[in-house]
Write a structure and sequence with these properties.
Oligomer: single chain
Strand order of the largest sheet: 1-2-3-4-5-7-6
CATH superfamily: Gcn5-related N-acetyltransferase (GNAT)
Pfam families: Acetyltransf_1
Helix content: 25-40%
CATH class: Alpha Beta
GO molecular function: acyltransferase activity
Radius of gyration: 16 Å
Largest sheet: 7 strands, mixed
Number of strands: 7
Enzyme class: transferase
Shape: globular
Keywords: Acyltransferase, Transferase
Strand content: 25-35%
Structural class: alpha+beta
Protein name: GNAT family N-acetyltransferase
CATH architecture: 3-Layer(aba) Sandwich
Mean pLDDT: 89
Order of helices and strands: EHHHEEHEHEHEE
Distance between the termini: 31 Å
CATH topology: Aminopeptidase
Number of helices: 6
Length: 195
């Protein structure tokens, strides 16, 4: 198993994993978008510099040359820039009848883990845990000392994983039609980047 930053060529393997999350979230903005069209938009997003190593970071778990897990996050202050990529790509697709309207998900002063997904064929093998262990490196690189995330109240398995990894509930919020716990993990002082 290799944990590494994603490359543009990984996008077609990342998209179906991210789509698993969108399906679980039951976002009304996406319910009428045909699956293949949504996958095209997600794939295009994960080919952008913004998503891979710009305003956000995408980290993948690779096994036998295949992407089997993905984590996607960014400093909270970059949320609008990150959301703009998906909004712009959706607007360019004829499959979206209305503009995509994304809810704010982050809390101030955190590196936000927007998405974590593992292929159904590889769940229960510790891949999510390995991705979570790698995230402090990227958060500190982005000069953040806290990692935040949201977990659906209806997903107790994910909640247990985050709690085992040291995340603590800091509040609740609505995203789409689901209520989520907002959780955070303090990772310590950010590393200093010198030139």
């Amino acid at each position: 198993m290799i944990i590494r930053e994603a490359r543009p060529a990984d996008a077609p393997q990342i998209a179906p994993l991210m789509n698993l999350i969108y399906d679980e979230m039951e976002l009304t903005d996406l319910e009428d978008v045909p699956g293949p069209d949504l996958l095209k938009v997600i794939t295009a997003a994960y080919r952008t510099r913004t998503y891979l190593s710009g305003a956000a970071t995408t980290v993948v778990a690779e096994a036998n040359g295949q992407v089997v897990g993905v984590a996607f996050g960014y400093p909270g202050e970059n949320e609008d820039v990150v959301d703009d990529v998906m909004t712009r790509l959706a607007a360019q697709s004829a499959a979206f009848d209305e503009p995509l309207d994304l809810d704010s998900e982050t809390a101030a002063g955190e590196w936000y883990l927007d998405s974590l997904a593992v292929s159904p064929d590889h769940q229960g093998q510790g891949i999510g845990r390995q991705l979570l262990r790698a995230l402090p490196i990227y958060a500190q690189r982005d000069r953040q000392a806290v990692i935040g995330l949201n977990v659906d109240l209806e997903n107790p398995g994910a909640m247990r994983l985050y709690e085992r990894m040291g995340y603590e509930v800091t509040g609740k919020q609505m995203i789409g039609d689901h209520e989520y716990y907002h959780m955070q993990l303090e990772i310590g002082r950010p590393i200093r980047v010198t030139n």
